[in-house]
Design a protein that fits this description.
Layout: E1 2-4, E2 6-7, H1 85-88, E3 94-96, E4 99-103, H2 107-124, H3 131-136, E5 148-154, E6 165-174, H4 175-180, H5 192-198, E7 205-213, H6 220-237, E8 241-249, H7 257-267, E9 282-283, H8 295-301, H9 304-312, E10 315-316, E11 320-323, E12 328-336, H10 342-348, E13 353-355
Helix pairs in contact: 7-8
């Protein structure tokens, strides 16, 4: 069945804001790798930033060395934050039947996204919450108040939130906001500061994180609405580069060697785009030779989120990081907007039909 995605966001254009050209700038290379469609059924998550944060070169990023903002254990009740001023007045990005994708406009909606994150990350995936998270049944950290929270809302689902439910979410953090409030979440695992410093002046970075969908909504319409919302947000704020961590279940790099080696050999970032895992936490991804990797099996073992980023045209950072709290191994996704495949633009960056 084909349903019309009603586009209600900003006017979207093909290649809304190309990456600035300059030293080290890359054009749009020919696509050389064929990837498979995203499989369904596994929770889609994107998280970042544990302990051991490295001191940052630019004073605008106020992270204290050795202190983890992202994994700080909260001991006091944390009230759901109010949405950012821009989010509170942002338009709806689109609807598909009873589903709508837009930014959270109230503290209650942010709290609903935090409850969804808690359900997926801690109840379904058995991560370890802080006592306050467990008491409130919400996943939260110090980055929530400065981020925009992208939501997929089912207006037909009964809930305690005005008769609708948050069934999918992404957390979005723009570079200009991060620089005013202590840096990016991802910096706890990867040296994104070094990557930003090497790009031409004026390049705008957007961090994606805390992505998840409710089990009943891990389907094509929900995922496509999330992507449509992200692309609408990218156009609205004229972003150039998206990045964030994506997780592979498991903490034994030896058992994950096929997946890690495949990502390293096929999608490793070139020098001008590379960001390395933080020293002391880096796990080598080059664990098998390219000839020894069974591409079909490696692809099959990757989570849907990573396969989706691959299809969009992402690079993979240098090295992986084990996250014992979540029981995962994280890789860095780097996705220049100028590299996004025509297939993704034709489907998500302008009002198009999607499968319902």
């Amino acid at each position: 069945m084909r349903s019309k995605l009603k586009h209600a966001g900003p006017a979207l254009k093909l290649r809304p804001h190309r990456v600035a050209r300059g030293a080290g700038g890359v054009g749009r290379p020919a696509r050389q790798h064929r990837t498979h469609r995203v499989a369904q059924g596994r929770p889609e998550t994107a998280r970042t930033g544990p302990s051991g944060v490295k001191a940052l070169a630019r004073p605008a990023f106020g992270i204290v060395p050795g202190v983890s903002l992202a994994r700080r254990k909260e001991t006091q009740p944390v009230k759901p934050p109010e949405p950012t001023q821009s989010a509170a007045t942002a338009p709806s990005f689109g609807t598909l039947g009873a589903l709508e994708v837009r930014l959270a406009r109230s503290a209650a909606e942010i709290a609903a996204s935090q409850r969804l994150r808690y359900h997926v990350f801690y109840e379904e995936m058995s991560a370890e919450p802080s006592p306050e998270m467990a008491r409130t049944a919400r996943d939260f950290d110090v980055f929530d108040p400065i981020c925009d929270h992208l939501l997929v809302i089912d207006h037909s689902a009964p809930s305690d939130l005005g008769g609708f439910s948050v069934v999918g979410t992404y957390r979005l953090l723009r570079q200009d906001v991060a620089e005013r409030h202590g840096g990016f979440y991802t910096q706890g695992e990867f040296d994104v500061e070094g990557l930003i410093a090497r790009r031409p002046p004026g390049t705008r970075f957007l961090e994606l994180g805390r992505s998840c969908t409710h089990l009943r909504y891990r389907n094509k319409p929900t995922i496509e609405l999330l992507w449509h919302g992200i692309m609408s947000y990218v156009a609205l704020h004229k972003m150039d580069v998206m990045f964030g961590c994506a997780s592979i279940a498991g903490t034994d790099p030896g058992l994950l060697a096929p997946q890690l080696a495949f990502l390293h050999h096929e999608f490793g970032a070139p020098a001008e785009w590379v960001a390395r895992a933080q020293p002391g936490r880096r796990i080598d991804m080059n664990r098998l030779s390219k000839e020894d990797v069974n591409v079909r099996e490696a692809l099959r073992a990757l989570p849907p989120l990573i396969k989706g980023y691959i299809r969009a045209g992402c690079y993979i950072g240098d090295g992986a990081v084990v996250d014992p709290q979540f029981g995962t191994t994280d890789v860095l996704i780097i996705l220049p907007v100028d590299r996004i495949s025509d297939r993704y633009y034709s489907r998500f960056a302008k009002p198009e039909t999607v499968s319902g």
